[in-house]
Amino acid sequence: MKGKNPVEQAIISRRTIKAFKPDPVDVEEIIELLNVAKWAPNHKLTEPWRFQLYTGEGKDKFVQAYVDSQTKADGDIPEKVQRKSEYFRNIPLHLVVIMPEDPRQRRWDEDYGAVSTMIQNFQLAAWERGIGMIWRSNDWIYDPVFREAIGVQPGEKVVATLMIGYPKHIPNPQERTDIRERLMIIDN
Ligand SMILES: Cc1cc2nc3c(=O)[nH]c(=O)nc-3n(C[C@H](O)[C@H](O)[C@H](O)COP(=O)(O)O)c2cc1C
């Protein structure tokens, strides 16, 4: 990445990680990174976020909430769900990012924007330290069973589950469109 400064390099080289090494990630390091990420732009400084970090045996609670949300009425747990739950269990950390759902549309949008930039700050700062993650927004984060099982309150939104660890495999980037194709310059 010739000619790119370290911030630019981190932005361009970061990838969504799905395959993780089993090596643990230090919780204190995650806290440190979140304390960096919180410097995201945030209109009215609402700091519209709270986090639930699942580590060690605590991960079972997260995984169980996922399984409960996917369990059929007759109690059957589809094989795909069983496989996925095993995969989730082996990922070092799960961080759930939660925001308040402000009934005012403008404030809701501003808060969602702030949380999103906070998450991206976190992804980039972690990437710089060799820590990877995937931002997941699967259907089950909207599922009342999952929400209740992890203690999300009415009036709160799960923005993301971030699954975190040291990358085992870094995928190739998917090309992005040259921004000139999306840019209209109006200069007179
Ligand atoms: C709001 C949001 C939700 C996402 N949800 C998922 C998801 O549920 N599953 C998934 O595999 N990736 C998810 N991603 C990651 C994107 O798929 C990923 O960023 C995209 O494929 C580009 O890959 P890259 O991040 O490596 O550049 C999400 C990303 C964002 C910003």
Task: Please specify the SSE layout and strand pairing.
Elements: H1 6-13, E1 19-20, H2 27-37, E2 50-54, H3 59-70, H4 79-89, E3 93-100, H5 105-128, E4 132-136, H6 144-150, E5 156-165, E6 167-169
Antiparallel strand pairs: 1-6, 2-3, 3-5, 4-5
The chain binds flavin mononucleotide.
Quaternary organisation? single chain
CATH superfamily: NADH Oxidase
The averaged pLDDT comes out at 97
The string of secondary-structure elements, in order, is HEHEHHEHEHEE
Total helical segments: 6
Which regions contain 5 or more consecutive residues with pLDDT less than 50?
A: none
Percent in strands: 15-25%
Any guess at the CATH architecture?
3-Layer(aba) Sandwich
Q: Which of globular, elongated, flat, extended, rod-shaped describes the shape? A: globular
Distance linking N and C termini: 35 Å
What does the radius of gyration come to?
18 Å
Strand order of the largest sheet: 2-3-5-4
CATH topology: NADH Oxidase
Return the domain count: 1
Which class of secondary structure composition applies to the elements?
A: alpha+beta
- Strand segment count: 6
CATH C-level label:
Alpha Beta
Give the % helix: 25-40%
